[in-house]
Amino acid sequence: MIMKKVLVAEDEQAIREFVVINLRRSGYEVTEACDGAQALEEYEAENGDFDVAVLDIMMPNVDGLEVCKQLRAKNGNIGIILLTAKTQEMDKVSGLMMGADDYITKPFSLSELVARVDAVYRRVSMLAPSNASKEPVSVIELGDFKLNLRNRTLSKRGRFIELTQVEFQMMEYFFTNPGAALSRTDILNYVWGSEYFGEEKIVDVNIRRLRIKVEDEPSNPKNLITIWGIGYKWVV
User: Fold this and answer.
1) Do you find a cis peptide bond into 107, omega within 30 degrees of 0?
2) C-alpha angle 212-215-218 in degrees, rounded to nearest 5
C-alpha cells in the first residue's frame, strides 16, 4: 500500500489538530510540527520523504514563507500549500513566487482542505518514477524549447530549466496548445482541477514565476504572452 505522506506545520493547536485529524481520516500519513523550525527538523528526520507540506505562514522561530523557500530548494517535487489569513495578500503572492503550489485562506472547511491536498497530491504522484516509466516517450519542441513529457523536463537551448509540478503542467498545457489563447479558467481547470476552490490570480502569479524562468527578458516576454481580457498564450 502506498502511503501518502504530509507534513503539517501550524502553531495554533486547534487548527493543527483539525488539519491533522481530518487528513488522517482521509488516508494520509501525517507528521505535525508546531513551528517552522520543527517543520524543517521533521523534514530532515524523514529524509525529505513527504509528498505534500501544509504550512501556516505566521509561525514563530521560522515562518511559513521561509520553510516554503527551504523545502522548495531541497525538493522541486514536494507539493506545498500555505495556510493564510485574509489580510495576508502580499504573503500569498510571495509564497507562490517562492514555489508554493496553492494556498488556503482561513477559516476553511473540511471539504476544502481535503480537496486542495488531494489535488496537490495527485500532481505530485504524477511525477513518481513508477508512473513516468509507463508513459510513452513524447517530446515537444517549440523554437528554443524542448518539453519531455516522459521525463517531465524542460530545456531551453540545451539548458535544463527546473520546474515545480504546477509549472510543468502549465507548460504542458501551453505546449500542447501552441498559439491558442487560453483563459485563466482553462488553465485553472487543467492544472488545479475543475473543483478548485481558490482564485484565478494564482494563475497570474505562476505566470510571473514561469516568465522569470523561461524568458530572456521576463518584463518583455516574447513567448509567454498576455492576451488582455482573456488569459495567456505560448508564441514560438
Assistant:
1) yes
2) 55
**pLDDT by residue (tens digit) across 36-55?**
999 999 999 999 899 999 99
- Backbone φ and ψ of 173, nearest 5°: -65, -45
Q: What share of the chain is helix, strand, coil (3-state, %, to 5)?
A: 40, 20, 35
Output the average pLDDT for the chain.
89
- For the whole prediction, is pTM greater than 0.70? yes
Q: Label the pairing between strands 102-105 and 4-9.
A: unpaired
24 versus 165: the higher-pLDDT residue is 24
- Structural domains of the chain, with CATH: 4-125 (3.40.50.2300), 134-234 (1.10.10.10)
What whole-number distance in Å separates Cα of residue 149 and Cα of residue 172?
Answer: 8
The amino acid that residue 222 corresponds to is K
Cell numbers standing for residue 205: 502569479
3-class secondary structure, 167: helix
